[in-house]
Amino acid sequence: MILSVACAALVIALIYSAIVVYSRRDKMWDWWNAVISTVVSVTLGVATGIYLFRLQSAEQDAQERARWKALVSAEYAQLQSQIDGIPMNVNFSGDKRPTTVPIFITYIQPIATEQAALSGKFSADTSQKLLALATAARAYNMKATYALELLAQGDVSPNYEARVAHAALNLDRSRDGVKINLNEVNQMMANE
Predict the structure, then answer these.
(1) Hey, where are the domains in the chain?
(2) Would you put residue 122 in left (φ > 0), alpha (ψ -120 to 50) or beta?
(3) Could you tell me how many helices (H) and strands (E) the chain has, helices first?
(4) Quick one: pLDDT at residue 96?
(5) Burial track 56-87 (b if 16+ CB lie within 10 A, e otherwise)
(6) What spatial distance separates the first Cα and last Cα of the chain, rounded to whole Å?
(7) Cβ atoms of 138 and 67 closer than 8 Å
(8) Which residues in 17-36 are b (16+ Cβ under 10 Å) and which e?
(9) What pLDDT score was predicted for residue 9?
(10) Average pLDDT over residues 75-80
(11) Per-residue pLDDT at 105 exceeds 80
């Protein structure tokens, strides 16, 4: 499109130049002076515009990236305090001796993490780690939902205590996975 417009402009300029040459030879110097100054001015104007656009885009990307880093850092501080809480104790008093199973249940929402990963402002490795953290958080939330449903169901099955202990172990392992991913992402974000 641009090439065809440029070719058409060139053809029109050549035709007009031929008309000027045949009609007024004494004005030819003025004509070429005007054409060359126009071409140089337009070229410099377009080049300056492209340079300024790229400079502004780079500045805007840097500001947006800094904003995402600050938002994600705030979310990580909140997530860290959330997953470092104190577990509740579930007490069982059955036919055997009484037992206590510590279980830690919370819901974590990695909203800023997911949006930062999808923003395209970070490297592919960092985005992959951000998504891995979000996936680990969602897996933890699914296991927390299962544990809550199990606790809400109550002691209705003969293996209830073992199921609660298993759910607590799954939650602890998932929470450890979230902590590992959180630490990895914190290190990567510090190096970005």
Answers:
(1) 2-191
(2) beta
(3) 5, 2
(4) 67
(5) eeeeeeeeebeebbeebeebbeebeeebeeee
(6) 40
(7) no
(8) eeeeeeeeeeeeeebeeeee
(9) 76
(10) 88
(11) yes
* Residue 41 structure tokens: 């001015």
Is residue 90 within 8 Å of 151, Cβ to Cβ?
yes
| Range in 2-6, 134-138, 179-183 with the lowest mean pLDDT | 2-6
Q: What average pLDDT does the chain have?
A: 84
Q: Which two tokens stand for residue 18?
A: 């031929």
pLDDT tens track for 147-176: 988 888 877 777 888 888 888 999 999 999
Which residue is it, tokens 């003969």? 158
Q: Contact, 126 vs 192, CB < 8 A?
A: yes
Orientation angle between helical segments 160-191 and 28-83, nearest 10 degrees: 150
